[in-house]
Amino acid sequence: MKAAPHRRPARRAAHTPAGRARLALGGAAVLTVLAATACSTASSSGDDRADASSSGSGKGGGRTIQVVAAENFWGSIASQLGGSHVKVTSIIDNPAADPHDYEPTARDARTVAAARYTIVNGVGYDTWADKLLAATPSSGRTDLKVGDLVGVKPGGNPHRWYAPADVHTVVERISADYKKLDPADAAEFDRLRTTFEQRTLGPYDRLTAEIRTTYGGTPVGASESIVSPLADGLGLKMLTPETFLDAISEGTDPTAHDKALIDRQIRDRRIKVYVYNSQNATPDVKRQVDEAEAAGIPVATVTETLTPAGASFQDWQVRQLEGIRQALAKAVGR
């Protein structure tokens, strides 16, 4: 299996003096964008206003809710829960973009400034979005920070869209917030939520439960911490050291001790399946994938954001869960 190129050189560079200087300049650039937005919002072109702040009537007569999601995995869910009553813009909507290092544009800032509802992942994952919100305060806007909602404290694992229970918690909150913002269409939001949870997410929930029931306790290895919430939700036993998972996620160099330990786990077949993020395949991860395949350990992949571009949350997740289930079946023979 050919690993995808590593896509986080900027985060790795952040740990060098030059990298810190580059990021400091990047932060200044963000502030400049925000200042420009504050000055230019009132004089934006007609096209920009149509893109960012159109708020026509929804089907039930309520105003269309302008929603901005920092990332497309939450944006996909928000769109399906709102139907024709919302217009959702996801700032990160390209599989090649890294949500950790994204540098917002003036257009992004105008979009956020015009939103009535925003969804930010939080837990340090998308601090650029926090800056956009802080620079465009609005008493008429509702802001959802997922990490706060599900109780993950600073320094915790931010990849909550890979935690099945947290996904459902977010679904409930978005629907409840829509009803507060547009009470006239509350019954329609209830219908959309019920459909999404009981039918749309049905294959996702069934696969999650099936893997947990059939393969719970199976030892697995992974390339980074994005896999940890999913492993927990599936009842799998993560053997890869947390320090290694965090290092790859944060773009820092893992320790020689951790790499040697993982090499032994693969060589001795202590792990039954290896799961890696194909959007962030470092040289260390590529080597582990090669070693796992050489040892006859099935390899499964996940990605950090929706792939392909335009995919729905549920189709993306089900495709990945199917790959993990197939790898587990091959590994344990059932």
Automatic annotation (TrEMBL):
Keywords: Metal-binding, Signal, Transport. It holds the Pfam family ZnuA. Residues 42-62 are annotated as: Disordered. It comes from the Bacteria. Residues 1-38 form the signal peptide. It is found in: Cell envelope. PANTHER family: HIGH-AFFINITY ZINC UPTAKE SYSTEM PROTEIN ZNUA-RELATED (PTHR42953), METAL-BINDING PROTEIN HI_0362-RELATED (PTHR42953:SF1). This is Zinc ABC transporter substrate-binding protein. It comes from Actinacidiphila acidipaludis.
